[in-house]
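hiii so um. not sure if this is the right channel but i have a protein structure encoded as tokens and i wanna go backwards to a sequence. like what aa goes where. can anyone help
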């Protein structure tokens, strides 16, 4: 059963406030009564933090490894997944799944992912994947290749983030590209 979505509001304007740390710390099991200091690059809640909002208590986590090399879709359909906004990846993922149904494609693989005790993963929006690209040095295991994001440009093309050049663009949906699931907290 999927966990309820985290309704945390993340704003693209607060991205500048998220500064990578020099020494990421390992995920810790701390007493809930003690404050937790979070940092970009830190292992936390099933993955690695790649974004923190201005409060430093809400953010985005990426899986530590790729989920594979799959098509964005098997069909040339318009899914309604059009928001590039920061914080819209989960809604885009749900729109893609509602349109595409079952199968082994990027959004479905992220949505079905159960990893390190968490099952609320999704395919990030364009702006979420851009921030992940900008903080990729904290992971050290991204390929210099295309990674899908959750924007369905039209019936034929979907969006990607190039982890070699930093560019975003559109690619034929039925072609494979890499996927890296993210989740919010």
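sure thing!! here u go:
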């Amino acid at each position: 059963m999927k966990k309820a979505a985290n309704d945390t509001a993340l704003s693209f304007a607060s991205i500048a406030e998220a500064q990578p740390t020099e020494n990421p710390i390992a995920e810790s099991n701390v007493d809930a009564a003690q404050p937790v200091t979070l940092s970009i690059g830190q292992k936390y809640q099933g993955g690695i933090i790649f974004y923190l909002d201005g409060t430093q208590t809400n953010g985005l986590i990426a899986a530590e490894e790729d989920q594979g090399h799959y098509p964005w879709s098997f069909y040339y359909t318009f899914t309604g997944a059009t928001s590039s906004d920061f914080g819209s990846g989960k809604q885009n993922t749900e729109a893609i799944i509602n349109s595409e149904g079952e199968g082994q494609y990027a959004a479905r693989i992220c949505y079905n992912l159960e990893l390190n005790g968490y099952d609320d993963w999704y395919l990030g929006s364009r702006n979420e994947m851009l921030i992940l690209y900008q903080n990729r040095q904290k992971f050290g295991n991204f390929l210099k290749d295309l990674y899908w994001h959750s924007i369905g440009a039209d019936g034929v093309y979907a969006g990607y983030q190039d982890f070699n050049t930093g560019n975003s663009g559109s690619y034929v949906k039925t072609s494979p590209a890499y996927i890296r699931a993210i989740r919010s907290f």
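oh and The two ends are 18 Å apart (CA to CA).
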